[in-house]
């Protein structure tokens, strides 16, 4: 199939040119013997210059030293420029300075869409305004975001300044009050959390203590159950009938004994009920086994007269019902081939 490929693809599968043959060398370079032996530089030492005639070494400036030198030169140059500008500055003859600086109010962070009429409407409520100067960029003509407002008198400027200061003080006061309230609420929340945590821990400890006491009482009650006779629960002999305990007839010791007596009686009754329940269960099981055995004998006798039949046709209605039932608790399962399966003896 390769013969059908175009020439440009056939060129990729073309074999390379054979390797040209070169005659072997007589000796390798390290096997050749040189007639002139190698020597050191001792014959050429006299051609070197005298160290006393060499120029002194020059020390190059490091990067840190160069940066420090440039910084120092920049500071000196800037100081000279400031001194020159201070000598040439004359505020009284400045053509760009207009109005009285003591009656001028500086307004910063002004929105770029704010106009002079809006500023006048906002600030003329504090006094008559003489002039409003909004600063614009000389290159693009767009506002720079600040302006100068000159009042007719100093008291209007001071009034506006005091209003702004009071507003800032109120803002700071409200912020501090909010922070204080937030800190108080956080402390209350933390206290509530700690209180809930302590309550949960105390509840868990109380629950564990009650569980331990209950287990100890159960262990103690199980040991005391064998002591009373079967005739009845005779109260323990606490002493002569005329003498009372240290706390009287209704003291905590007497109450504790009554409680222990009631607990032992409840344990005994529970054990007796459990024993009776097991006895009834065993009796029912034996009765069911006897009934099934008698039914099985009758079924075998009935099936033997008519020939051997492995199906369910020769069984009575009661036996069919017994086959259809599944009583896994007694060990009998409903058979699939018509035979009864009896569980292993217990």
UniProtKB/TrEMBL annotation:
Annotated Gene3D superfamilies: 3.30.70.330
Source organism, top-level taxon: Eukaryota
Cellular compartments annotated: Nucleus
Keyword Cell membrane tagged: no
Cellular component, GO, one term: U2-type prespliceosome
Region (Disordered): 48-95, 140-346
GO biological process annotation, one example: mRNA splicing, via spliceosome
One annotated GO molecular function: U1 snRNA binding
Keyword set, alphabetical order: Nucleus, Ribonucleoprotein, RNA-binding
Chain intervals with Basic and acidic residues compositional bias: 60-93, 150-163, 178-195, 203-219, 252-302
Annotated ranges, domain RRM: 103-170
Biased composition (Basic residues): 164-177
Pfam families in the record: RRM_1, U1snRNP70_N
Keyword RNA-binding belongs to the record: yes
InterPro entries: Nucleotide-bd_a/b_plait_sf, RBD_domain_sf, RRM_dom, U1_U11-U12_snRNP_70-35kDa, U1snRNP70_N
Listed PANTHER family: U1 SMALL NUCLEAR RIBONUCLEOPROTEIN 70 KD, U1 SMALL NUCLEAR RIBONUCLEOPROTEIN 70 KDA
Name by which UniProt lists this protein: U1 small nuclear ribonucleoprotein 70 kDa
Organism: Cercocebus atys
Lineage: Eukaryota, Metazoa, Chordata, Craniata, Vertebrata
């Amino acid at each position: 199939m390769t013969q059908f490929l175009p020439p440009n693809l056939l060129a990729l599968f073309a074999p390379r040119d054979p390797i040209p043959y070169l005659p072997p060398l007589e000796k390798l370079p390290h096997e050749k013997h040189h007639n002139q032996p190698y020597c050191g530089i001792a014959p050429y030492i006299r051609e070197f210059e005298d160290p006393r005639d060499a120029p002194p070494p020059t020390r190059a400036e490091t990067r840190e030293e160069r940066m420090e030198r440039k910084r120092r030169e920049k500071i000196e140059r800037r100081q000279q420029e400031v001194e020159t500008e201070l000598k040439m500055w004359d505020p009284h003859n400045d053509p760009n300075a207009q109005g009285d600086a003591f009656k001028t109010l500086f307004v910063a962070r002004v929105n770029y869409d704010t106009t002079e009429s809006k500023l006048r409407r906002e600030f003329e409520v504090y006094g008559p305004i003489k002039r409003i100067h909004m600063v614009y960029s000389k290159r693009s003509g767009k506002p720079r975001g600040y302006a100068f407002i000159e009042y007719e008198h100093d008291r209007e400027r001071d009034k506006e300044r005091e209003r702004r200061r009071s507003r800032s003080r109120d803002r700071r006061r409200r912020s501090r009050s909010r922070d204080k309230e937030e800190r108080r609420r956080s402390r209350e929340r933390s206290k509530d959390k700690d209180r809930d945590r302590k309550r949960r821990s105390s509840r868990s400890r109380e629950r564990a203590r009650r569980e331990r006491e209950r287990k100890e009482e159960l262990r103690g009650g199980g040991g005391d159950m064998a002591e009373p006779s079967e005739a009845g629960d005779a109260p323990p002999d606490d002493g002569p009938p005329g003498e009372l305990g240290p706390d009287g007839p209704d003291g905590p010791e007497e109450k504790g004994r009554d409680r222990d007596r009631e607990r032992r009686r409840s344990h005994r009754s529970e054990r007796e009920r459990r024993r009776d329940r097991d006895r009834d269960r065993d009796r029912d099981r034996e009765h069911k086994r006897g009934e099934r055995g008698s039914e099985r004998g009758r079924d075998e006798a009935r099936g033997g007269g008519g020939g051997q039949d492995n199906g369910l046709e020769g069984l009575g209605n009661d036996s069919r019902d017994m086959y259809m039932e599944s009583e896994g608790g007694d060990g009998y399962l409903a058979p699939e081939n018509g035979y009864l399966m009896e569980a292993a003896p217990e």
